[in-house]
Specification:
The structure holds two protein chains of two kinds. By secondary structure, chain A is of the alpha+beta class. Chain A is built from 14 helices and four strands. By secondary structure, chain B is of the alpha+beta class. Chain B folds into three domains: 214 residues, Multidrug efflux transporter AcrB transmembrane fold; 84 residues, Hypothetical Protein Ta0175, Chain: A, domain 2, CATH 3.90.1070; 158 residues, 2-Layer Sandwich (Gyrase A, domain 2). Classes of the chains: A alpha+beta, B alpha+beta. Chains A and B meet through α4, β4, α5, α9 and α10 of A and α7, β18, α11, α13 and α14 of B. β4 of chain A pairs antiparallel with β18 of chain B.
Chain lengths: 397, 535
């Protein structure tokens, strides 16, 4: 069985303007939504407060629960239906307030609801209470994790893709230094992450690490849009969601790396093709794999989303969104970005078609001479060929 | 089979055997007796979110320990100044209460104070004397290292006390771990009454005996809010059993603590035969018993307030000298209250109050629910993938499915072997791995298909496919491994469980795809001379 017939030639690169526009729009919507909502909708983990999951023997409604909550000073608490048993399970959330002693609130809610509904009718299934201090700590920890992940991944892909470990060491040092300076200047962690991202992107551009640039852009793209969709759907941002985001980063890069690997391989095989066509061919060649993997991963994540129950629902939702966006970005964002570089800077210019010069193959060719080269290779200035042969050797390690 | 194939078969068999060996204790309860002595017997431990239980982060308010030390020193200092015949007007703890201020009427006494502090209170630092409206005020502060030591000791002691209390309460496999300078992480798996456990852990349980000053006018103190120096206003709470109403009765007691719960050697629940009510009988051992005897002897016919956490429990009149060092703590207790009070008194008081900073409680029914739903989604999602692979890749799909099963087995075995904890996000990590693991096979198969289209024989196509795919697979998985390791470093609890299964999953995937799948294909084409590849 085959979904994608061999030899499929979809012009992904040609539609990059459309794709960039679409991505730009999604990012814009995400950012606007985040601004309108005043940042991510932090859950109990990060904002501090209390979350109580209650289940009832008999179906009830939020209004009645609220009357029970008034007694314990939780009139403003949010009461939400939860899980798939209609009317039987609810989440009660309350934000941290100055004068509140959260540590006993779970007990008080249980007492008050039991009074209202009767003995044995109410079960407190889960209590999550996070004081403001711990909330701030957790927020910091989560941001630190994101920061570390971005740092390590930026270093890894700039080193691995381009085989320029020196450059990647330099990158690590630069990001480290910039963050340290930012830290000394008293910048918050969010700013530090922004600094790290900008430094990483800037360095990729300056050092012409185009693959690393593409991968990092795709990664940021995926994270922003996933966070944006969370903001749009008003879902809460909690610790497991951060874990999901990191998993998405890993997954999206996984996809991107496979396409990039193919681009480099195709570059080695076909010597005189326009870069855009090489990218197209590589994306098409890996399309079958990209779609299959996304499909199997989606299958299991959807199973988790629909069968996993309320506690894991948002986590599964984040993964679902991230996998879809990640797959899209590795095809439509990461690869076309490679074309943003002025070609002369990163790779020998394609030889102008109008100047064919029948000449014997240079010696370097025999070391590569792949069997599948389609078009007979035209000549190219020897100097440029050598440069290419060099990159190829490196790649083969 | 060639030698090399045999060698690989051996390696795979070894890994499989190890995984099964580590998994067996988790799968069955009826292990033979000899198993534990030679083979691993630990089960996969479940996180609190799966087995239910309570997770608490406590903060020891060590500042309060500094304050109470200051109060104790203040009392000593007052006595010492009197003994040395140094006249002073007042000794107080102004401001936040962590330092002491002494007021003299003439500054010639300051030198005497300095000598006294140097001689007997070397944890204090004497500040400069300030003259204010003819009075001389001297501030005494803790030396920074002394304050630090008090705080550290308080944190350590609180940790020990909480350990003792939980031990007495009886929780299987509790975890009580210090975090940072003044925080304590407490994890109580499978606890059925979180409310009670919380009360037990959080209670300061400071038992104090102080004399009631019956000459002072209590009512005036309550009305005006002005408490005579050296005394404090405390209340006795009495609960009416019928109406449940609480009445508060005020007392003026001397600030000086005569005896604390520190000397308690035993605390037992007894039943009062007269009222058929439980009470707690505390026993002071050795020095405490002597102290108690002396106190009661010196204060016959006066009232001794028994104070628990700043509240008067009772204030009986001392009828006569009490030898033997026992005291009753009464109150309208339920049996359970009395038992818990006995536990905390036996385990000792917290040197400072603790505050609950974070609480996560999962009821056992929700935990079971999560396990059930988690495994259900794993099976449904897994089956979908398994069926899909066979439809799409035929026999090769079945090989991928086999390596998928090996993969899950290795993850579970790894969990048991590394004594990692399985959480709900951890189950999600396994599910995600199931989806992503076939990716390795897909990469290989797509490559092999390409090679086959070029007209290669199955053997050559497999060789080329594996060779080209290996680096891609390694590359692609490293990034997820980085994300997993970062998460492991920064995450706690459930999230860490996700990091564990995700990272284990990647390692298992690499093994299953690059070693196991390759072995199966090599076996098929070399040993079985497979002519046509179903892929």
């Amino acid at each position: 069985m085959q979904f994608i017939k061999p030899g499929t030639k979809i012009d992904f690169v040609g539609r990059r303007k459309l794709a960039f526009g679409f991505s730009g729009l999604l990012i814009l919507i995400s950012i606007v939504s985040l601004i309108v909502h005043g940042g991510p909708n932090y859950g109990v983990d990060f904002a501090g407060g209390i979350l109580i999951q209650v289940s009832f023997k008999e179906p009830t409604d939020a209004g009645r629960i609220k009357t029970g909550l008034q007694e314990v000073g939780l009139a403003e608490a949010l009461v939400q239906r939860f899980g798939d048993q209609v009317g039987r399970e609810f989440l009660i959330r309350a934000q941290q307030r100055e004068d509140m002693d959260l540590s006993q609130l779970g007990n008080e809610v249980e007492k008050s609801l039991t009074k209202l509904y009767g003995q044995g009718q109410v079960e407190i299934r889960r209590v999550e209470m996070v004081g403001p201090k711990v909330g701030a700590d957790l927020r910091e920890k989560a941001l630190l994790a994101m920061f570390a992940a971005i740092l390590f991944i930026a270093v890894y892909i700039s080193g691995r893709f381009e085989m320029k470990w020196l450059a990647s060491a330099f990158m690590a040092a630069a990001i480290g230094l910039a963050s340290y300076l930012g830290y000394l200047a008293g910048a918050g962690l969010t700013v530090l992450i922004l600094v790290a991202v900008i430094v990483a992107l800037g360095l990729c551009w300056l050092m012409k690490l185009k693959y690393a640039l593409g991968a990092i852009v795709a990664l940021i793209h995926d994270v922003i849009i996933t966070v944006g969709i969370f903001s749009l759907t008003n879902k809460e941002f909690t610790l497991p969601i951060v874990a999901a985001l990191l998993a998405i980063i890993g997954y999206s890069l996984n996809d991107t790396i496979i396409v990039f690997d193919r681009i480099r391989e195709t570059l080695g095989k076909t010597r005189r093709q326009e870069f855009g066509r090489v990218i197209n061919r590589a994306v098409n060649d890996t399309l079958s794999r990209t779609i299959l993997t996304s499909l199997t991963t989606l299958l299991v994540v959807l199973a988790l989303l629909f069968l996993g129950g309320g506690v894991i629902h948002d986590f599964a939702f984040a993964l679902t969104v991230g996998i879809i966006i990640g797959t899209y970005s590795s095809i439509f964002v990461a690869s076309p970005i490679l074309l943003l570089f002025p070609e002369g800077m990163v790779k020998p210019k394609p030889v102008p078609v109008e100047a064919p010069r029948p000449a014997p193959e240079p010696i370097e060719a025999e070391s590569e001479a792949p069997a599948e080269v389609s078009a007979p290779a035209g000549p190219a200035p020897v100097k440029k060929k050598r440069a290419k042969a060099k990159t190829k050797k490196k790649k083969k390690r | 089979m060639s030698r090399q194939l045999k060698w690989r078969a051996g390696l795979i068999a070894l890994m499989l055997a190890l995984a099964l060996l580590y998994l067996t204790p988790s799968l069955t309860d009826r292990l033979p007796m000899w198993w534990g002595s030679v083979l691993p017997s630990n089960k996969i431990s479940l996180g609190l979110d799966l087995q239910g239980g309570m997770h608490l982060i406590l903060e020891v308010e060590t500042k309060e320990a500094v304050k109470s030390t200051a109060e104790r020193i203040l009392q000593d200092l007052r006595q010492s100044l009197r003994d040395k015949k140094i006249p002073f007007a007042d000794v107080t703890r102004p401001g936040d209460g962590a330092n002491i201020e002494i007021v003299f009427l003439k500054d010639e006494y300051v030198a005497g104070l300095k000598d006294l502090v140097a001689e007997r209170f070397d944890e204090l630092k004497v500040g400069d004397a300030r003259t204010d409206e003819g009075r001389v005020k001297v501030q005494l502060n803790f030396k920074p290292e002394a304050a630090q030591r008090i705080r550290r000791l308080a944190a350590q002691q609180a940790l020990q006390t909480i350990r003792n209390r939980i031990d007495e309460f009886g929780v299987s496999e509790p975890e009580i771990i210090p975090q940072g300078e003044d925080r304590i992480l407490v994890q109580l798996p499978g606890i059925s009454d979180p409310k009670r456990a919380k009360a037990l852990i959080g209670r300061t349980a400071q038992l104090e005996f102080k004399l009631v000053d019956d000459e002072a006018d209590v009512n005036r103190a309550v009305a005006t809010g002005q408490v005579p120096p050296g005394l404090e206003l405390l209340y006795e709470h009495q609960v009416d059993k019928e109406t449940g109403r609480v009445t508060k009765r005020p007392f003026l007691v001397k600030k000086r603590t005569l005896l604390t719960g520190r000397y308690i050697t035993e605390a037992r629940v007894q039943i009062d035969s007269q009222f058929n009510e439980p009470y707690v009988l505390v026993t002071f051992g050795g020095q405490g018993a002597k102290l108690f005897e002396r106190i009661t002897e010196a204060n016959v016919k006066r009232r001794l307030a028994i104070i628990l956490d700043g509240r008067i429990n009772s204030a009986p009149v001392i009828q006569e000298k009490i030898p033997g060092g026992t005291a009753r703590i009464t109150g309208a207790f339920t049996m359970e209250d009395a038992r818990d009070l006995a536990i905390v008194l036996r385990a000792g008081a917290l040197p400072a109050p603790v505050k609950i900073l974070e609480e996560r409680t999962v009821g056992p029914s929700l935990g079971l629910d999560s396990i059930r739903r988690g495994f259900k989604s794993m099976i449904v999602g897994g089956l979908a993938v398994v069926v899909f692979m066979v439809i799409y890749y035929g026999l090769s799909g079945a090989v991928a499915d086999l390596s998928l099963m090996l993969n899950v087995l290795l993850i579970m075995g790894g969990l048991a072997a590394f004594r990692a904890t399985l959480t709900l996000p951890g189950i999600a990590g396994i599910i995600l791995t199931i989806g992503m693991a076939v990716d390795a096979n897909v990469i290989i198969y797509e490559r092999v298909r390409e090679e086959l289209r070029l007209g290669k024989t199955p053997k050559a196509a497999l060789e080329a496919g594996f060779a080209k795919a290996t680096w891609t697979i390694l590359d692609a998985n490293v990034t997820t491994l980085i994300a997993g390791l970062v998460l492991f470093q920064f995450g706690t609890g459930p999230v860490r469980g996700f990091a564990v299964t995700l990272s284990l999953g990647i390692v298992a995937t690499l093994f299953a795809a690059l070693v196991f799948s390759k072995f199966v294909f090599d076996y098929l084409v070399t040993a079985r001379r497979l002519a046509k590849l179903s892929i």
